[in-house]
Amino acid sequence: MKTRLFAVYIAALVSILVSASGALAATAAATMGNYVVVLNDDVTDPATLAAQQVKSLGGKLGFIYQYAFKGYSASLPNASLPTLQADPTVNYVMADHDRAVAISAQTLPTGIDRIDGELSSTVSGDGGGSVNVDVAVIDTGINLSHPDLNVVGGRDCVTPAAPTLDDLNGHGTHMAGVIAARDDGQGVVGVAPGARLWSVRVADAGGFATFAQAICGIDFVTANAATIEVANISLEGSGTDPGSGCRTRDAFHDAICSSVKAGVTYTVAAGNSGRDAAATIPAAYDEVITVSGLADFDGKPGGLAAPTCEFDGDDSFYNQSNFGADVDLIAPAVCIVSDSLTVVDPVTGLPTPTYATLTGTSVASAHAAGAAALGKAGAPKATPSQVAHGLQAAGNANWSNADDPDGIKEPLLNVDTL
Questions:
Q1: Residues with catalytic roles
Q2: Which domains does the chain have, with CATH numbers?
Q3: Distance CA 410, CA 82 (A)
Q4: Per residue in 352-410, pLDDT tens?
């Protein structure tokens, strides 16, 4: 049942179907395999070296990474791996895996209400100005024609030969709306209204990404770390935290680690598998802000509201959310209305905005990304660690954790002081 829910995005967490172990044995039987190659830090020209190595091994070059770390992705003969791994310029090689409602007047979504967005410094819902901060949405893209969203740039890591920043799925657009929908009197309003959004497309129309695509997006964000302050990742895969430092032989972790080191604050979904987040990546990584899900149906504390689109208890732990010591915050995740893909009006021929209701820890993470954006707007020099601690300090305990499997009562995201 959960697999089907993911497929139609009721659960609202994009899947990255990869393994953190990077075990090369998984593809050893095939003639060709897809790999991420991490080069040594002293390599001065990774693009040229990558082209030379791939050509000499009879492979096909994919992405070049220059900022999160120096390296590349490629399709390579499996038999060539010992040669590549023995190359003195190569740090390590890791296997890549892939897989195969209209609102006329502006609405204050229950999630924004629950975290007191209307009481924040920008007073979500009062028709005020825009938050002066840049947020990357590392997801399925963002609908470029949606009037609620201030998209200023990005990167396509799915179809780089014919690039588009546009969202062909709807998930990334929904996250963008939660984070930063404009306070313009129509549609919905976000946590950090009008913030500049960067559409970093790493997942395809079906909502699936590979390691190589995800790292491509992180590399783009790291390259623009002087501009992009916050990044949200709503990807889920099986894996564990490989340890401290940015050279752990887990390229996904190492890319995020380097990006955080460059000053970007990352918010990520805890996952919707109902298990300890320690077995889910990137939720298990220490460098990120991991967010679990709260079921809330009226935007108010007290636990008095009846369920709407999902069967769960009001003000309780979302029944499919991951949990555990890796979780830093909890935020609204159930039945959240936000922006969706535009459709062409059959009469006028113009794009018409639409809206959707989604559930999942992706949405919780997006609320935290908006909060992190408010934190950075108020304290531009704050480090990712300081932003994380600030969000935890600003949170409250006004929710019931009676059904939280780990018994840990994470701070509930709140932005009334941000």
A1: 139, 171, 362
A2: 6-15+100-394 (3.40.50.200), 19-95 (3.30.70.80)
A3: 46
A4: 889 999 999 999 999 999 999 999 999 999 999 999 999 999 999 999 999 999 989 99
